[in-house]
Specification:
With 244 residues, the chain is an alpha+beta fold. 36% of the residues lie in helices and 14% in strands.
Length: 244
């Protein structure tokens, strides 16, 4: 054992230990950043978004009413153009950009959420991914293989962040105009203050009756939705964080 006060420790072991530690940290950081999700709206995205035909609703947004009209029209147009996809995820499909979804004509909740997000970004909104996982305890349970999961979005309006569901035509706004984040909905489901009448339609089954954890900015745990297909989580770092 080398003691901290020895010359060898001070001159050799401690400096090299620090350098190796910093090197390992930088390697992990570079590895993770290489799998960061690029949310830039591309020219190809814009061409496909134009096919939705929502420019009249989204071309000029002056107030909260205009925001809600645009968001609801984007969601509805994507639902109308592409079939319901609750169970349509196909093994082996590893490309999930808007153009990939448009070319296939079907996909998973993930594909729909991605399309909704890119369309809303195109029209000037800030949007973040919400990944939810069936769990009743620690957020770290999302690392367990085989755990049920679902992808949806939140969009930032002038009144705050609001849920935009990907499979069912639900927006996080109640009959009185109050908007809801994913955390608000989970709390309401647990307390019993939210039911099928709150939003004007049945609560989606993928909301797991309020017993779930959720992570912002997480696009995949496995790393194979986008190139370069590295086996580490794919994350939008600008919005990454665990839900409360």
């Amino acid at each position: 054992m080398f003691r901290r006060g020895t010359r060898l420790f001070r001159r050799v072991i401690w400096p090299w230990g620090v350098l190796l530690g910093m090197g390992a940290f930088l390697m992990v950081a570079v590895f993770l950043s290489a799998n960061g999700v690029d949310t830039t709206v591309t020219d190809q995205d814009r061409e496909i978004i134009a096919k939705l035909g929502v420019d009249d609703s989204c071309g000029q947004i002056d107030d909260h009413g205009d925001e809600m009209e645009c968001i609801s029209q984007v969601q509805a147009a994507i639902y109308e153009r592409y079939p319901s996809t609750r169970d349509a995820f196909v093994k082996g499909v590893t490309d999930h950009r808007v153009a990939d979804y448009d070319a296939r004509g079907y996909g998973s909740c993930y594909d729909r959420a991605t399309f909704i997000e890119q369309a809303l970004r195109h029209y000037g909104f800030d949007v973040r991914r919400v990944a939810i996982f069936k769990s009743q305890s620690s957020p770290l349970n999302y690392l367990k293989p085989g755990i049920r999961s679902h992808a949806l979005s939140e969009v930032k309006t002038s009144k705050g962040w609001m849920v935009v569901e990907s499979i069912d035509p639900l927006l996080g706004v109640d009959r009185r105009g109050r908007i809801y984040t994913m955390g608000d909905i989970r709390q309401g489901l647990r307390e019993g203050s939210i039911d099928d009448d709150t939003f004007g339609l049945a609560i989606p089954e993928d909301f797991f009756d309020g017993e779930f954890v959720y992570v912002y900015g997480l696009h995949s745990r496995h790393g194979y939705f986008f190139e370069p297909h590295l086996p580490v989580p794919e994350i939008d770092w600008a919005h990454f964080g665990f839900g409360r």
